[in-house]
Design goal:
- The chain has about 425 residues and is an alpha/beta fold.
- The protein has twelve helices and 13 strands.
- It has a five-stranded mixed beta barrel with strand order 1-2-3-5-4. Strands 7-6-8-9-10 form a five-stranded parallel sheet, sandwiched between helices.
- Helix 4 (about 170-180) runs parallel beside helix 8 (about 275-280) and helix 5 (about 200-210) packs parallel to helix 6.
Length: about 425
């Protein structure tokens, strides 16, 4: 089958001509699509320069998108696995490349794309370069630091949701969150999730939910998409608004291959809206199972502790001192009586010894006392000054004396010294 020729546009062979199709006799979609394919297949390969904004690998084949360097024009491309092995390189989103492409039209879906047969890497694209500069700036400012990220509440009172109106992301978040915790509440703000309106609308929704005192966590959700459509979620204005929010923010853009910068600034990054629902609310079934498990463990601990304490008490009660406590008192009473008897004996013995010692001291004192000597008939002579007379020469004739007897004293006058007998006795005065 042949199609339009690029020179004059005239149909050839079985190609469709406007004269072949009328309102009353239209041509089929298949014939129309085949004509387009035949027309495009006549184009040869061309070298094009652009920036890779999409790169998805499926079954070894690559399905991507190439964007113009100066305008928003872009085209889908495919790299078959055999070609990919010959490239000798593995480009990534944001790379600037030159590629040899040949146009292709897929009849079944009506999609236009180009088949890449060769590719050469030139460097980073302007778009990726801008994002990398912004990433480096935000890293320097600390907006990616884990220390500044706010923890999510265990069970939020109300979940704020920012997503596209009637989107799959909204349904996924609602359905999965309600399956995990049926009583969960949402406050949803719809916003455009791509294009020029994306950033201002998402920021407005974020500020409204952040100001709502009942909202405990905010989820920004989108069901993935072409990396070119996700550029709004790497916009500096949105990133700074998320960083300034007082309510924890969850990023659920759902695009693994090309993570927007929102994933880095948000307090929590979820891989998909479904994953976000699972991470912001607990599973009621899991929590009930956990409560049952904890109650079982508590009951086991208490039963074991009480059993141990009962056994310990029984062991204490079986001791003789507690089995017959009066025995302890009786034994102590006997000890006290024995100690009291010993004390009395000790006191009596001490008193007897002290009395004997006193008597001995009294007898010694009595024997040494001058009074005892005087009581035996001796006397002591004193001179008038109280000096004891020890020598007869101290009392010449006429000296007044005081004589102390066993009982009382008398005065006397010395007649002088009296001569002694040979045996030392004083002669009788008569």
């Amino acid at each position: 089958m042949t199609g339009f020729t690029p020179d004059d546009g005239a149909p050839s062979g079985d190609a469709i001509h406007p004269r072949d199709s009328t309102r009353e006799a239209p041509t089929s979609v298949a014939r129309f699509a085949e004509t387009i394919r035949a027309f495009i297949s006549g184009w040869g390969s061309v070298w094009v320069e652009g920036e890779i904004v999409g790169w998805n690998v499926r079954g070894g084949n690559v399905f991507g998108r190439l964007k113009d360097l100066t305008t928003d024009a872009s085209v889908s491309f495919r790299i078959w696995s055999s070609t990919r092995q010959r490239l000798g390189m593995e480009p990534a989103v944001g790379d600037r490349v030159v590629a040899a492409v040949k146009s292709d039209f897929f009849v079944k879906t009506g999609d236009f794309s180009v088949i890449v047969s060769a590719m050469r890497h030139l460097g980073l694209g302007d778009q990726l370069e801008r994002l990398e500069r912004l990433r480096a700036q935000l890293i320097r400012e600390g907006l990616f630091d884990a220390a500044r990220k706010k923890p999510l509440p265990f069970l939020p009172n109300t979940i704020g949701l920012i997503t596209g109106e009637r989107s799959d992301a909204e349904r996924d978040v609602h359905r999965n969150a309600e399956l995990r915790w049926p009583g969960v509440r949402f406050r949803t703000r719809h916003a455009s999730v791509q294009g020029d309106r994306c950033v201002p609308e998402v920021i407005a929704a974020l500020e409204a939910l952040d100001a709502d005192p009942e909202v405990d966590v905010i989820v920004i959700a989108r069901g993935g998409g072409d990396p070119q459509h996700l550029l709004g979620f790497s916009d500096e204005r949105l990133l700074r608004a998320v960083a300034a929010a007082s309510t924890p923010v969850v990023s659920a853009i759902g695009h693994e291959n090309d993570r927007p910068l929102l994933d880095e600034v948000a307090d929590l990054r979820a891989s998909t809206p479904t994953d976000a629902a699972k991470r912001i609310v607990p599973d009621v079934a899991e929590q009930r199972a956990l409560v049952r498990q904890l109650r079982s463990r508590l009951a086991t601990r208490l039963t074991t502790r009480i059993g141990t304490d009962i056994a310990h008490l029984e062991q204490i009660r079986s001791r003789p001192a507690l089995r017959r406590p009066e025995h302890l008192l009786e034994r102590r009473a006997q000890e006290i009586e024995l100690l009291a008897a010993r004390g009395r004996d000790t006191v009596d013995r001490t008193l007897a010894e002290a009395a004997l010692r006193t008597r001995e001291l009294r007898a010694s004192l009595r024997a040494l006392s001058p009074a005892a000597t005087l009581a035996r008939g001796y006397a002591i002579a004193h001179l008038p000054g109280g000096v004891v007379l020890r020598d007869a020469a101290q009392a010449p004739r006429g000296t007044d004396l005081v004589v102390t007897l066993g009982r009382g004293s008398v005065s006397a006058r010395s007649d002088g010294e009296i001569a002694e007998d040979g045996d030392g006795r004083v002669p009788d005065a008569n």
